[in-house]
Amino acid sequence: MNIRLSAEDRMITFFRYLSLLLTSLMFLVTRTGPALVYKILIILALGLLAHLFTAFFWSFRHRPHAVMVSVSIEMLLILLLAIGTGGYNSPFKLYSLNPILIAAGSLSFYFCWSLLTGYFAIFLGFCYFFYKSADDTLASILLDNGNLFLALALTATFMQLLLKLRRQREEAEARTDEMLEHIKSLYHIVETSSEHDFMNIGQVITDYALKLTKLNKALFWFAGSSGGPSLVSRQTGWLPEEEESLFGELKKYEPEWRRQKEPIFRSIPGFGDMLLMPVRMSTRFVGVIGVKLEAHEGLEGRRWYIQQLMFLAELSAITLERHELSVTENRLIVTNEQNRIADEMHDSVSQSLFGIVYAAHSLKQACRKMTPSQLEEQIELIHDSATKAAKELRITIYSLSSKKSGGPTWLGMVRSHLKSLSRLNDVEIDFKVKGDDFSLPYPYHKALFRIISEATGNAIRHGGAGNIEVELTLKPRWIGLAIRDDGIGFDTDLLWTRSEEGTSGLGMKNMQHLASSLGGDFQLSSNENAGTQILISIPVGVVELKNA
């Protein structure tokens, strides 16, 4: 079995074999003890045992009880070896540093110090009874061998400090990696939010506040705003009947929140100690994001919570500002386009139609006085004018249609997005289309783009897919979308369970909501190490009937 060792593991292994080499050399050059042949046999046996114990430890390192037994057996063998090869003068008495290092670096504090104390006590006890001279006393033996205990104790202490630092580093790295994953997911959700989802942005931010802080209760309270629909304040963790009272208490402090720019620790009557972070756009105060603090949280934990809430507050402010700018920009685009169309219609088609109407009215008044040839000539002029007006109207319509004018189409934009996604992530994305999207209403365009974007992004980010297939079928009364990938897959039951608990699955919930909002059906199938498949079927016209 190929076991990957860390730098610390390799250092311990190197120390084991180096200490074995040095103690073995000292054992060979000493004149006392058994014959040279027996010394060599002892060293070979010791080398074999060292190799076996090292391999056993790395193989079973995640099973503490097995490691305890292994370390205890090795310590006992070293103890017998040290006693049998000279006692006080044995070069192997310091070889016990090896199991001590493993015990200090991998096992509990109490086991390590029990092992060390037991070894020292048994070693000195045997030496006192079997190797002491007439002048030796227990006190003198303890003084003469105190350096042995000191070396072992310092080594154990140093190793345990290293272990503590390593665990803190690993916890910090794991927390950072988890936070980055949450941030990427949150950013993707915010980026692809529709108008409906945006009005529910408070719930998305609240859910992620719990993910980032690992606390049980969070909220996003929005202050009232003038103009436009007000965003809905949201909370997670409190009972539904407590929500109105909670937001009512927060509203009492609104003048204070508006003046604050720094995090606020505040005890809210009936709701406990809370950490609140004001959210500000460049133009106005938005509200506050908050979490309920646990009673046992220390200063370091509170600093971590402050960092997470500051990030969420900044992200929320940027998102809200971008949304408002996008709404304003869309309104300006629509207004400008309406003005341009009106100008074109007025300058061309309107003038031609006015001329036709005037000519027809004149012809009606004078037709009885005209000869047949004059009447035919006037009708021909009106016909030419009508033909010209129809041509100008057709040109105007073509200029407004991206498909007829050769401009970017919706399918072209989807294909361009997938091509960029494929190139940036080195992933093969096969996009197949059957049918035409020209007559498809705008809500379907928007929802389908978001579903395709969300599904392919998940396959790359979370599934580690190398190949993705996107099949889109567009028919007059029905839309079919199939997205398949060869990623690592997952347990779908576990995904929906976590989604209900608010710990994951927001992307899937968004896609399911988008499909159901159009009257469609969303099916998800996946298995671990077998990829993921999403099948969506949407009838065309359901949205229009709902809004009729």
Q: What are the main properties of this structure?
A:
Beta-Lactamase, single chain, elongated, Heat Shock Protein 90, 5-stranded mixed sheet, 548 residues, alpha+beta, 3 domains, disordered C terminus, 5-stranded antiparallel sheet
Number of helices: 19
Q: What percent of the residues sit in helical stretches (DSSP H or I)?
A: 55-70%
Domain count: 3
Please state the CA-atom Rg, rounded to the nearest Å. 39 Å
DSSP strand (E) fraction? 5-15%
Distance between the termini: 67 Å
Would you tell me the overall average pLDDT?
Answer: 78
Protein structure class: alpha+beta
Biggest sheet: strands, sense, closure? 5 strands, antiparallel
- Runs with pLDDT <50, length 5+? 544-548
State the total count of DSSP E strands: 10
* N to C succession of SSEs: HHHHHHHHHEEHHEEEHHHHEHEEHHEEH
Q: Strand order of the main beta sheet, please?
A: 2-1-5-4-3
Rough shape?
elongated
Describe the structure.
The chain crosses the membrane at residues 12-30, 36-60, 67-88, 108-130, 142-163. Its EC number is 2.7.13.3. Residues 448-542 form the Histidine kinase domain. InterPro entries: HATPase_C_sf (IPR036890), HATPase_dom (IPR003594), His_kinase_dom (IPR005467), Sensor_HK_TwoCompSys (IPR050482), Sig_transdc_His_kin-like_C (IPR004358), Sig_transdc_His_kin_sub3_dim/P (IPR011712). GO terms for molecular function: 4 iron, 4 sulfur cluster binding; ATP binding; metal ion binding; phosphorelay sensor kinase activity; protein dimerization activity. By secondary structure, this protein is of the alpha+beta class. The protein folds into 3 domains: 7-170, no CATH class; 193-328, Transcription factor LuxR-like, autoinducer-binding domain (Beta-Lactamase), CATH 3.30.450.80; 408-547, Heat Shock Protein 90 (2-Layer Sandwich), CATH 3.30.565.10. Helix content is 65%, strand content 13%. It is built from 19 helices and 10 strands. The chain has helices at 7-29, 36-59, 64-84, 97-106, 109-130, 138-144, 146-191, 195-199, 201-213, 240-252, 254-259, 299-366, 372-400, 402-405, 410-425, 442-461, 492-501, 506-517, 542-547, and strands spanning 218-222, 234-236, 264-268, 272-280, 285-292, 428-435, 467-475, 478-485, 521-526, 532-539. Strands 2-1-5-4-3 form a 5-stranded antiparallel β-sheet, with helices on both faces. Strands 6-7-8-10-9 form a 5-stranded mixed β-sheet, with helices on one face. Strand 7 and strand 8 form a beta hairpin. Helix 3 (64-84) packs parallel to helix 5 (109-130). The protein is elongated and about 155 Å long. The relative contact order is 0.05. Mean pLDDT is 78; it is low at 544-548.
